[in-house]
Write a structure and sequence with these properties.
The protein is α/β, with parallel strands linked by helices. The protein is built from 14 helices and six strands. The chain has two domains: 11-118 and 193-318, 3-Layer(aba) Sandwich (Rossmann fold); 122-189, Orthogonal Bundle (Histone, subunit A), CATH 1.10.20. 54% of the residues lie in helices and 10% in strands. Helix 2 (59-62) links the parallel strand 2 and strand 3 (67-68). Helix 1 packs across helix 14, helix 5 (128-141) crosses helix 8 (166-179) and helix 11 (227-236) packs across helix 12. It is globular.
């Protein structure tokens, strides 16, 4: 990191976007050009032994650039946004201490928000008995029943959280019960404080149909690389079907195939469909963010031209 990048705030470049948009390669290239290190903001790549289904960046793809928050938890551990925020802060400081530019890369919007806006989670400590009650209700009556309760208690959060995302629905219900407020309003208020960093926030995008085709090809490649064997191994070592790690797209569907719920062909079809839906939700999430620089990959003839644009924009904004 050369020169005085910021007077008061730590510099931070963010490369975000939907799955299969080329974020990892862009972050590595930018790190090489700008003397940086990459901090992963991916809620699945943190798990050891889960490489294929997470499209985890390989040692070769890292090209010698140091990456943080990859392979830092076992699949039977419960990893969450509070842990991520703590570890990501430490990673930023470590990079800066080494005179490197921290580059946050990933598609987990809530993780990015947690670091970027330094969201205060102190009011959101887990209430174990309450959580167990809501989990039991979801098991007994289904996620929709739980979501209906949230709709009554906190309509704003209910509108922002998919009914099938039971973990986030429960977290919002806990927050409503413990604080009497709305988690959506709380997070919005935190974001309104502005970035805690001298940040440049890129979101990569491309033609929707082209993105969906890339997703389908990536899933086919994952199957060729051995996703079935990866999930089978995780199941055989005792990783439970309902564990946080096994809720990831790809793992969930293949695990269900192994349990006899459907055919392998159907599992692959569902992985493609659910990944496309996930990419759409990611884009919706990032559209709600402020001060985002949208980068349409289709507007560049070559990757080199794209990377030049990212480098020139980041350099200009960090040194303003």
């Amino acid at each position: 990191m050369t020169g005085d990048l910021t007077i008061n705030k730590t510099p931070l470049v963010i490369i975000a976007g939907p799955t299969a948009s080329g974020k990892s390669a862009a972050a590595v290239e930018l790190a090489l050009r700008m003397n940086g290190e990459v901090i992963s903001a991916d809620s699945m790549q943190i798990y050891r032994g889960m490489d294929i289904g997470t499209a985890k960046v390989t040692k070769e793809e890292m090209r010698g650039v140091r990456h943080y928050l990859i392979d830092c938890a076992d699949p039977d551990e419960n990893y969450n946004v509070v842990l991520f925020q703590q570890k990501a802060r430490e990673a930023v400081q470590e990079a800066v201490s080494a005179q490197k530019l921290p580059i946050l890369c990933g598609g987990t919007g809530f993780y990015i928000q947690a670091l970027l806006y330094d969201i205060d989670f102190t009011e959101m400590e887990e209430n174990t008995s309450l959580r167990s009650r809501y989990e039991a209700l979801a098991d007994e009556k289904g996620p929709e029943a739980l979501h209906r309760i949230l709709k009554e208690k906190d309509p704003a959060s209910a509108a922002a959280i998919h009914p099938n995302n039971v973990k986030r629905v429960i977290r919002a219900l806990e927050f409503a019960q413990e604080s009497g407020g709305s988690i959506a309003a709380h997070n919005l208020a935190q974001r309104e404080r502005g970035s805690a960093y001298n940040s440049v926030f890129f979101v990569l995008t491309m033609d929707r149909q082209k993105l969906y085709e890339r997703i389908d090809r990536r899933v086919d490649l994952m199957m060729e690389q051995g996703l079935l064997d990866e999930v089978t191994r995780l199941r055989d070592i005792g990783i439970a079907r309902d564990s946080t790690a096994m809720q990831g797209i790809g793992y969930k569907q293949i695990y269900s195939y192994l349990e006899g719920d459907w055919s392998l062909e159907e599992a692959v079809r569902l992985i493609k469909r659910d990944t496309r839906h996930f990419a759409k939700r990611q884009l919706t999430w990032f559209r709600r963010e402020k001060d985002v620089i949208w980068v349409d990959i289709d507007q560049f003839d070559t990757k080199e031209a794209l990377y030049d644009h990212l480098q020139n924009t980041a350099s200009g904004m960090l040194h303003r």
